[in-house]
Design the sequence.
DNA sequence: TTTGGTAATTACCTTATGGTAATAATTTAT
DNA sequence: ATAAATTATTACCATAAGGTAATTACCAAA
């Protein structure tokens, strides 16, 4: 089936952001409201960000918008037709 | 622990959008690349949208932005400090 | 160099999201 | 009214995200 619809993190961008703002993974994790293990795994590509991660980032970092930090495959799912 | 960090769907908004565009749950599901059961459960508040759902919407409905369809609690997680 | 502290990584488990497929409800033709 | 589509709902299961807590790596001070 359609295997291409997940959200990814632009790890390089996020890593740079953390560095520039002198934030450790632990600090960042606390700020966005997830465990530091979650942040670590996402940064290392072992997990994709879930809705909790995404919400935490958008909620607490108003200087970051979705497209800056996140990405997704741009393939269309099977039956997609343009709307309206 | 911090139980407040998930993403919700503005079901009324989404329902109206589907109605206005004459899209059934099945059609919408196909367009965003998830099962129709997923759409149904999200619309009925029985599930929150996961990253797949969110990605599907943002990807395929460029006329919708994140804040229009989704929301999240605006409480700050425990150790949150404003950055820079 | 060892002690203490911070940061990063990972094994193990829990839980929530997503798919399948069957069922129910609703609508449209005939 | 009833058969045939279409649409919506849900039980059941698979899997991926998230938490806990232990372990490892790193680094500074004495």
Sequence:
């Amino acid at each position: 089936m359609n295997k291409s619809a997940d959200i990814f993190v632009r790890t390089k961008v996020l890593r740079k952001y953390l560095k520039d703002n002198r934030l450790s993974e632990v600090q960042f994790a606390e700020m966005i409201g997830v465990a530091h293990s979650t942040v670590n795994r996402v940064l290392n590509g072992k997990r994709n960000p879930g809705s909790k991660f995404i919400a935490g980032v958008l909620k607490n970092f108003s200087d970051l918008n979705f497209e800056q930090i996140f990405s997704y495959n741009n393939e269309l799912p099977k039956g997609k037709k343009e709307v309206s």
Q: What stands out?
A: The longest strand of chain B covers residues 7-9. The interface with chain A takes residues 2, 4-7, 21, 23, 27, 30-34, 48-52, 54-56, 58-61, 63, 66, 72-74, 76-81, 83-84 of chain B (CB under 8 Å).
